[in-house]
Amino acid sequence: MQIDTISPADTARYLAFAIELADAARPLALSYFRTPLDVISKLDESPVTVADRAIEKRLRDMIEERFPTHGIHGEEMGIKPGDTFTWVLDPIDGTKSFITGFPLFGTLISLALDGKPFCGLIDVPATAERWIGSPGGTLFSGSIARSSHCGSLAEARFYTTSPDMFTGADADLFERLSRATKLRRFGGDCYIYGLIASGHCELVLETGLQPYDYMALVPVVQGAGGCMTDWDGKALSVHSGGRVLASANSKLHDEALALING
Predict the structure, then answer these.
(1) 3-state DSSP helix/strand/coil percent for the chain, to nearest 5?
(2) What is the pLDDT confidence band of residue 46, given thresholds at 50, 70 and 90?
(3) Which of 107, 131, 118 has the alpha carbon at shortest distance from 85?
(4) DSSP for 144-191, written as a single string
(5) What pLDDT, on the 0 to 100 scale, is given for residue 198?
């Protein structure tokens, strides 16, 4: 099945359900935020909390009730195989932010078709902000979101979640790209991709991401007029590596890719 064969009515139905999921996740996340939490280290040493698991469990139960044939790929509870559609979930994107009281964590919900991003949602519970991306465009809190028209690295505003994710040759590349921009800032996890969609920054470079970290972001960025690929310029899917480049527009994206691969 191709994305362009999905009817507007079905698209609207899936988006409405994604909103239901986000509406269920938000109060649950806030009920744990800035409270004493048991934090567990996973095998990759990233932290997980009772909040992550409670939210994902709630979302999975809702999906299995509404769309029992759909697959589910969640950060905390793994993969449930299904048909051509798979819901990809990150209950709390930015767990380190969450456990330190920083409010720009988010819940990421996306629907993939044959492993490719179809629609996606970034919900930021602490600020009550939400970006919803689909083939029809991106909405931010109910209004159309548009990315920046900035067309040069020299004028671009650059973000990454943390410089610590880059090591070795990747760290050199990160320095080269980020220093070529007008301004660079750190922190924000999924929130910075919403900022691209709303025109407040132009470039994000990251590495080491998992499908649940980026699948929801692709429709949001692209629906607002931006571009999001791997470092080679290839389209992202659940099978991509963790190297991600997001840009406000195609001209800027091409310039960034040329620097990365030059």
Answers:
(1) 35, 25, 35
(2) low
(3) 118
(4) E--------GGG-EEEES-GGG--HHHHHHHHHHHHTSSEEEE--TTH
(5) 98
